[in-house]
Amino acid sequence: xxxxxxxxxxxxxxxxxxxxxxxxxxxxxxxxxxxxxxxxxxxxxxxxxxxxxxxxxxxxxxxxxxxxxxxxxxxxxxxxxxxxxxxxxxxxxxxxxxxxxxxxxxxxxxxxxxxxxxxxxxxxxxxxxxxxxxxxxxxxxxxxxxxxxxxxxxxxxxxxxxxxxxxxxxxxxxxxxxxxxxxxxxxxxxxxxxxxxxxxxxxxxxxxxxxxxxxxxxxxxxxxxxxxxxxxxxxxxxxxxxxxxxxxxxxxxxxxxxxxxxxxxxxxxxxxxxxxxxxxxxxxxxxxxxxxxxxxxxxxxxxxxxxxxxxxxxxxxxxxxxxxxxxxxxxxxxx
Length: 335
Ligand SMILES: *Cc1c(COP(=O)(O)O)cnc(C)c1O
Ligand code: SF4
Known about the structure:
Blueprint: H1 15-20, H2 26-32, H3 39-42, H4 56-59, H5 72-75, H6 91-99, E1 104-108, E2 111-115, H7 141-153, E3 159-163, H8 172-182, E4 190-194, H9 197-200, H10 207-214, E5 220-225, H11 234-245, E6 248-255, H12 264-276, E7 280-285, H13 300-313, E8 321-324, E9 333-334
Parallel strand pairs: 2-3, 3-4, 4-5, 5-6, 6-7, 7-8
Antiparallel strand pairs: 1-2, 8-9
Helix pairs in contact: 7-8
């Protein structure tokens, strides 16, 4: 087990504090897991441009002494990331940058997606964010001015989606600034939040956040992001119970990742664990093909077989929808 160093009593263990105490040194993480002797063979020989970052509580859920641990593989920078692989480029980045002017994306009917912030508590190796030049061009700048104008002016928008980065990286007061400004907008029917924070730093689900959720004028959906059942320990399950008690509907999206969750056992185990904590599986995404992530790719044929096997084994509502995001399409594309 990994334990944080003791703190003076007067300093409360707020989520902000736990955020700052995240592990950022890959060697420290490997040492904590009893894998220090593998540092030279596992770690990249030079900078990948995307640092390790993992909250200590998430690292504590990794198996000691297992270099193939499914949680470790999601966060550890590895030498294979430096290989250039055809089809995995930086091109997607240009597309991404074009998509976020003002921090508002209105691509899908009825839904406005806000890139609320570029920050995350964890750096996931497979994420397109590794190449994404988040600058000040996120929706929360200037008191959400562009986002609020865009949403108020377009009566076709029924759902506001907070995404990122991780929107729960923002202080709750900042989130309330947006939802208070939109409270009187009659065409809004739903709020959705896409977040990995309740999984990687469940302390983020504090009383202030719950109070904000409770006084929202719309029904809310929270789409979590867990890829493996081992990510959901009792602290995460407890955070989910509290989110549900505050009125949120809980869904989960995952990314299909080779070596992490590309077996029927891993996917079935994830669905079962999610449901036991009050969360329904929503999407299983095929990887965005960005440089440095090719070692996580699972081909579409294998992905389809996995979903077919899951269907043969699980209740229909425990089988996530396998999708790929294709730039320019008006919805996620089912595979
Ligand atoms: C994924 C996405 C959504 C949400 O899509 P759902 O299928 O409703 O989950 C909305 N807007 C954008 C730009 C997206 O990429
Ligand atoms: S956006 Fe989500 S997947 Fe990407 S690094 Fe942040 S938490 Fe991880």
